[in-house]
Amino acid sequence: MTAGTSTTARAVNAFTQRFGRMPDLVASSPGRVNLIGEHTDYNGGDVLPMAIAQRTYVAATTSSSGKSRAISLSAGAEGIFDASAPLKTGDWWDYVAGVLWAFTKRGIAVPQCDFAIVSDVPMGAGLGSSGALGVAVATAINALVDAPLDARGIAEVANEGERGFVGVSSGIMDQFASAFGREGHAILVHCDTREVEYVPFSDHVLIMDTGVRRELRFGGYNVRQRECNTALAWMRAAGVPASSLAMAPADVFKRVPFGEPLGSRARHVIEEQARVTEAVVALRKTGHLPGALLKASHESLRDLYECSCPELDFVVSAIAEYPGVNGARLTGAGWGGCAIAVSEDLASLETASSAVAQRYTKQFGLRCEMWLSKASSGIQVETV
Description:
Blueprint: H1 6-19, E1 25-36, E2 46-62, E3 68-72, E4 79-81, H2 94-105, E5 113-119, H3 129-144, H4 151-166, H5 173-180, E6 185-190, E7 195-200, E8 204-209, H6 221-237, H7 252-255, H8 262-286, H9 291-303, H10 310-319, E9 327-331, E10 338-343, H11 346-364, E11 369-373, E12 380-383
Parallel strand pairs: 3-5
Antiparallel strand pairs: 1-2, 1-12, 2-5, 2-6, 3-4, 6-7, 8-10, 8-11, 9-10
Helix pairs in contact: 2-3, 2-4, 3-4, 3-5, 4-5, 6-8, 8-9, 10-11
């Protein structure tokens, strides 16, 4: 096996202990944080994520057992399904089976396979854990069957499995950020065209996990998506020319009587799109992300999109008080999960993180896990 991380070794060990043989390869992909551009992806706008250091590893090989099997060190139960015609179960391994389903839908034959999954991307924290899993599985399958998919194709297969099989109405950001990650760069994803640009990003990022968990399939995410679709339909009915809600003209609120809550949802999406554009301009000039944009984004998510929570609001407000911290906001869909803070100075984030973690526990009786990261690499395959 090529030199790898201890997590790679854990994935190989888990595989050999369960299946009694060595895997052919270990594929991995990172989680992500979205620097700015929240809830713009499924509204045809732009997002600006980066890949983080935390990754999901999938040890895999083809199987002659007649079924595909998947184990996860964190999820517990083992999944067993037919690679060529998997059935949705509602269990965690649907995210694995859904990728195989998406390959088959594209006309790429997939054999039965065995998978062992190890991840240090926290589940349900808003760090793209399901996206990282789907991309890692897609990368493994792509290598095992020598399929012709590039990073974009891998991301699209993973997204199609999550949307079409698992049933999460997610945008493409998580999978694209995971597949296209590059050290020292944020990833500007144009979600309407699926084009990708790299933007220099040199700040340190503190990831703050509130420990408040939410499930996208049963939370407010799908509700917000329906509200935005309705707002877009109203806009089009009023004759406003725009390809998507995020690309609506600045005078749309004078021309369309959205009412509430549709008006607030639309305003967040349209103004957030403008913040992404402004952030990219700043990064290309300086490599640093303006804190004022992060602050405005969080306030909009809290007040207009109503997807924050008291715990997120607390850590965002608290961390911003400390010298050297440029700005902070929630990241991911919201309703719990993580927030981020950015700074040019690593020491400032380290000092602030310790103090805020103590204050958070005193306030809510919960532990706030924190990680420091910089923009990291995307998909990788290690041969065993």
